[in-house]
## 1
Amino acid sequence: MLAMAMPMQSQTAGTSVLSIRLEQRKGDAAHAVPQNTVFRNGEILRFRLTSQIEGYLYVIDRGTTGSTSVLFPASGHAGSNRIGAGRGYFVPADGDGWFEVSGPTGFDVLYFLVSATPISLPSEGAPGTEATPSDAPPPPSNLLPRCDDAIFKARGECVDGSAGVAPLAPDAPVPRELVPLARSASRDIVLTDDGDDTAVQSAPTAKLPIVYTFRLAHRE
């Protein structure tokens, strides 16, 4: 616009970290939708996360205008970014967990950083804790969501294969809120698509913290 608990000290490479499900609100019901769907402005979505570890989560959204906002933890003094094994969470953490798709056509990029130890968050009112211009440039204007014709014809859906959960390229910038945290974070992940959910696992050579992205495609 995500087993059994193990001590944080024993977290090893190659362990499942989170699973992510994208849900759309239709009436009073929540429906799982393909993560590479190209959405329309005004549609109502949320992320349902299931944690496989005891740890800490920080989620930043960079919108198509280039502005950023903190989606997890919740704002205010009650906000906590601690996550527990086997527990579910909604992103955004504020309100009822839903958000409305808006902004120019393009890809919102959500940055997920998962750590085994507490994350030092920006203090309330510090730059970057609200939607402010990001140091990371927005995607080039020619990188716009496109419907995959083969899938569109077969299912009647508009999907873009580049949308959804993805590793963060080694040289890719991150929003300024994550710069101090992402320097030591691994970008090596393994993804497993299990129906409606995508499981995120640290790569065999990686250790926490890890950082990865979710590209949310939408059109006006």
## 2
Amino acid sequence: MFHFKKFSIDDSNAAMKVGTDAVLLGAWAKCENETRILDIGTGSGIIALMMAQRNHGIPIDAVEIESDAAELAKQNVLLSPWAGHITIYNDTISKFILQTIHTYSLIICNPPFFTNSLKTPGKARNLARHNDSLPVTELLDITSRLLSKEGKAAFVLPADAFEYWQEEAVKNNLFPERITHVKSSPAHKPHRFLVLFSPEKHAEIIKSELIIYSSEKIYSFEYQNLTKDFYLNF
């Protein structure tokens, strides 16, 4: 069980455990005055719960393809203060879009990363780690179709995949509005990009850098400040 300040996450049977990427994205994404939020690939529900903590009372839909993870997410939501506001769907996003009548002011996603990499023996972990079941082109097409007119879409991406994502996003009329390069330490190169896309092309993209550790095992002030509403020790 992973305890945050206002909720807890049981990820004991989840293929992918609670990690820094999800927490970073859930804390970083701007989500003021949202009307409805969609979390694609919610896993055990962490980002959906972070969104609920930051957006009191608005409806949040969370889609998860893997049945064990979806069941865990449902239990985590039921034990949270926001059980009445989050709905978990055990389905593919491709099927979900055919059923939903809603559009979303914010779509948020910590997508599967590992295209063409070695598969692990576990089917559930492969679904969580590999994007074979949800290609980037399809994910961005669905995102574009589900966004409201003024909507935004937030992703955490591998640094070396960003250019490809940006090219595919533009094909679906999604343009980067805000980009944060994430580095493990001052000496490291960025390993993740936090990206906010919108249907409107911006003359100037807001760019920043976030360093997780200022020195060995010491979290940076910026990282602590970003995640202080969630982590118990900040």
## 3
Amino acid sequence: MHRNAPLTPAGRFRLVQRIESGWTVTAAAESMNISRQCAHKWWRRYQAEGLTGLEDRSSRPHSCPHRTPARTERRIVALRRSRKLGPARLAGIVGVPASTVHRVLVRHGVNRLAWMDRPTGRVIRRIETSRCGELIHIDVKKLARIPDGGGHRKLGRAITKNRPGLGYTHIHTAIDAYSRLAYSEFAGPENPNNCVTFLDRAVAWFTTQGIHIERILTDNGNG
């Protein structure tokens, strides 16, 4: 819905309910603080389509006669993948404006060279998920403990070089790739026992959130 739209679908339904109950279109429009023409529009849509007519519609045109031909788009994409040229140079080869070339590259997901495999020109896809629990990422972050008064960054290495270290603390984290919901805890060093027991607790916690874990991705080899 447009951010400046005066009515939500629920508000449109209240509008047509008032007209159905006997209000004039003008009176119903004034009560909703909209124009009479706007009220007529939603009333006509409701009469023709029912509740479906009160939903937002896409502003995309049914046809676009001036759109770049598919054959030209295929040539632009092929040249981009084979020669790794930018929109300005591709425009001179293909014979269309650079702005059009850029839009074509964006539409096909090849507008950034960093997204493409250099030798083959194929787009490198990131991991994509479609539902919660389909893939869980697990990792461990090792953080050095800072003594009272601060460490070497504050006091300098000349003062702290002979001071014994306090060791490390380990934060184990499991993140759902789709919802980005995360579970973290201090679970000890990255050894098989701690990693497995953390996973058990993470699975149980995600279950309480209504997420069933299907697959796990991690670089914790020992665990």
## 4
Amino acid sequence: MCGRYAQSADMRELMEAFAVTGSSPTQALPANWNIAPTNPIYIVRADSQDQTKRALATVSWGLIAPWLTEPNDAKASQSRAINARSESVYEKPTFRAAFKSTRCIIPAEGYYEWATALGRYSPKQPFYISSHDGEQLPIAGIWSSWRSPVGERVETASIITQEAVGELAEIHSRMPVFMPRDRWASWLDPENNEIEVLKKLMIVESPASIVIAHPVSHAVNSVLRNAKELTQEVELGEPETLF
């Protein structure tokens, strides 16, 4: 799964990186090196006024199931729906409608993953995983709009994950689905709703080669910690200094 990630780029940088020419938020999000479930995040999606253009939007991380009616239930459901499995996103009731018509790209500077007992690292050792070329990671996602009983509109999104491959499988069994630039237009097109076509867009050759991973401090375990130092590499086996 992907349960925390980092994003410190400003809106202008993201709009340039993802060729956004449509709408954008009226207020920027602060840099966050430890984004947690239900936090506000940036997504790139088709513009509502002109679907040939891309828009940058802010939503809450964790898709709200469309059938929920109570705000407390909706909020609780988000932490259980921050990730959607690529193998079943098109058929699960929580995700299938969004997968068919409201897909997005979730830009990440990098993401964190915790080693499992299945790999060669100590269980629960955190790693920071980022693009090998230093660019933004374009992660496949889905978004949805939910209305509360009093008419409040809440937009939410989930990251799509796949089985981990290559060296990443030594850390954790899952990894995000990366979306290559030449597929962005097809992925974001709301009219593109053929399930088999969309499933093929999520298949990327050698996705592990896109990123590099290094161990980081256990300080990232706390959602209260938020600093660039969280992404810095640490030596395994040596004492860590919390900041």
